[in-house]
Design a protein that fits this description.
The protein contains 4 helices and no strands. By secondary structure, the protein is mainly α. Helix content is about 75%, strand content about 0%.
């Protein structure tokens, strides 16, 4: 994983592969969602947070969903 630091696309591919191999492991979905959020891909991040929450609901996951929804709403309304 060290070689992926600073390489957002490579990290994204790594997390996507991890999710594909361990579909029911929420940790990888949360990590993928975090990576997507960090890259500004908010719609995709939101979908991954929701998928992770179905597998293993956490307060932080719920908080991230609410934050992204607010951010997306603000972007859509132009504020």
């Amino acid at each position: 994983m060290e070689r992926l630091q600073g390489n957002q696309e490579a990290a994204l591919v790594w997390y996507q592969n991890a999710v594909d191999k361990a579909v029911r492991y929420a940790h990888y979905r949360y990590a993928l969602a975090d990576q997507l959020r960090n890259m500004g891909r908010l719609e995709e991040a939101l979908a991954e947070y929701r998928a992770a929450m179905k597998l293993n609901p956490t307060p932080i996951g719920g908080m991230n969903i609410r934050l992204i929804q607010r951010r997306l709403n603000a972007l859509r309304s132009g504020t």
